[in-house]
Amino acid sequence: MNSPQVHAPHERTIIAVALSLVGGFLDAYSYLLKGGVFANAQTGNVVLMFLAMGGGAFRDMLRYLIPVLTFAAGILVAESFKHRAFGTKDPAVFRLRVVLVIEAFLCALIGLLGPRVPHFAVNCLISFVAAMQVSAFDRLKGNQMATTMITGNLKNAMINAGFFLRTKEAKYLDSFFNYCVVILSFGLGVLLGFLCIGAFSDLSILAAIPLLCVPLIALGRGREKKSAPADAREP
């Protein structure tokens, strides 16, 4: 009999759900309050940048280029953490916690500064946050996954659905449902953002902080469960 597959603590469903809620929330926030843009993904900015180039609007090109560069910087920062030991017993979990703390700090900064900060600057910060999150938390139970956008998740969900229809193997059906959970969580995050924005306006982004605490706590519990079998073997 095959032993059950063990996944890293950050690949747990509860973490993917919480971060997908954050991803949807941030997209709703940037769209409804910060100029009608989706700051999580950069495809739109690249399209608009080259449209501006075609129209000779070179100043607008810079407006769309900077969020792309900010997103790229967020990826670089998150990736650089993956190669640091930090002198802790569990550097992998510590690195992920650092990312979550930075995210929470930036969300608090955005909320507290509120309308005093230009939309452009806020969207750049959101792009940075989204980039760190999507780079650091990129798997769910061994499968590639994104918590700040759904296109790739939708593609992978349907690929696994196709595999299941051909092979009838349960693992593909499980993966299909995992992706569906992430997509639904993202949508619920958008709805949560809509409701919070209606009540609290710029301060609504502070609601993302409790959601970020969920993976912070879950990472610690995942580490404890992982070490439990070793403790049980001791006399």
UniProtKB/TrEMBL annotation:
Protein name as catalogued: DUF1275 domain-containing protein
Transmembrane segments: 12-32, 64-81, 93-114, 120-137, 176-197, 203-220
Presence of the UniProt keyword Membrane in the record: yes
Superkingdom of source: Bacteria
Keyword annotations of the record: Membrane, Transmembrane, Transmembrane helix
Residues spanning the signal sequence: none
InterPro entries: DUF1275
Organism name: Teretinema zuelzerae
